[in-house]
Amino acid sequence: MRKATKKAPDRAIKILLVDDNSNNLMSMEVALERDDYSFTKATSGREALRILLKEEDFSLILLDVKMPTMDGYDTAELIYQRDKLKHIPIIFITAHDYEEAAMFKGYQAGAVDFIRKPFNPEILRSKVAVFAELHRKNQLLREQEEHVKAINNDLTLLNQDLEKRVSDRTAELERLNEELKALNLSKDKFLSVISHDLRNPLTALLASSAKLNDDPEKLGSDKIKQLSQIIHRTSNKLLDQLNEVIDWAKKQSEKTKFNPEKLRLAEGIDESLDLLKPNAAQKKIKLENKTPKGIFVKADPLMLRSIVQNLVTNAIKYTPQGGSVIINAKTEGHMVRIFVEDSGVGMSEEVQKKLFNKDSNISISGTNNEIGSGLGLMLVNDFVAQHGGTIDVESAIGVGTTFKFTIPATSTA
Q1: Which CATH class is domain 257-413?
Q2: CA dist., res. 288 & res. 270, Å (int)
Q3: Residues 274, 237: contact at Cβ < 8 Å?
Q4: Which fold has domain 9-119?
Q5: For 151-171, what is each residue's pLDDT tens digit?
Q6: H-helix or E-strand spanning residue 213
Q7: Which of 127, 211, 270, 297 has the highest Cβ tally under 10 A?
Q8: Could you say which DSSP state residue 294 is in?
Q9: Where is average pLDDT lowest: 27-31, 97-101, 293-297, 313-317?
Q10: pTM score, two decimals?
Q11: Among residues 304, 331, 266, 310, which one has the least CA distance to residue 387?
């Protein structure tokens, strides 16, 4: 066996020469060697089959028809029984005339062409060159197909990567959008706390200072002392409350929803009402806390105070001179229900139905014509919900309104 080395391995044209006559093998090799082919030689069909069991990358087989034991036709049939060898074209070399029956048998066995002995070297080279070129083009086509397949695989991976990036980016945008919504809601809550928890004490301060400024000569020393004490006490309470609101806002920015503590409910409500007493006194409204001393709750102190102050502030606002606002509570299983009852102007059924609608702008307390920002109610709803509680209202025009909300009870132990 002799192999040429002028062609690159991936472009080499490997030819299997099969003939029982070594002179014929030599003649075929000599006729083709100037075309720089690589040759493997076999002197029988069986030897050719053994070679093909080890090597499958032949470009062409030149197969003698007339051989002892196993002729070319039988050899071709056995070769093509293996799927991996079916792509190799076979040219039969025959010393007989091209009888129609013999040619049919050869083509039936898998031949692609016939060459008659003694062969014409030019014809042999020409026919082999055709199949060599076909092999090169097929090989190039397969390489291009592999290249395209590799590109498609890269594109698939790229698309998957892009899809993942888009999916991750979409998820990130959705998360940021939710955070933005939460920040907007937190901003609204903070504004509501400022509006409801700090504005009313400021009103009491303004009212007391106005009395001192209007006509101080007509005020006795006792009255002046009383007003100055109200201003001093309210200012200190206002400062404390402002600090608490700032602390609460920090907790909200840190995504701390609430910090429940064990509280004696009556004391917590007393602290909530302390800043509202001047507002009630101006309208001669009886502000009374009837909450039983033995009730304990698990609640966020600042949230509880904000709930109570929102409800009581609105009750005072919509209660006429000389009316009353009473806070009471009772235990119901694992919850405590707190009542804020006023003798105010009341609300119609239509207003009550819209009161807890998130899309409504109706304020937490008001008549048919009273429309507010809805921030107070939003805040109360949210704070009650964070405690796992509920809130509802009963009201009648000209009779009054009672807000009822629940928060978790806890034992005294």
Answers
A1: alpha beta
A2: 9
A3: yes
A4: Rossmann fold (3.40.50)
A5: 888 888 888 888 888 888 888
A6: helix 199-214
A7: 297
A8: T
A9: 97-101
A10: 0.46
A11: 304
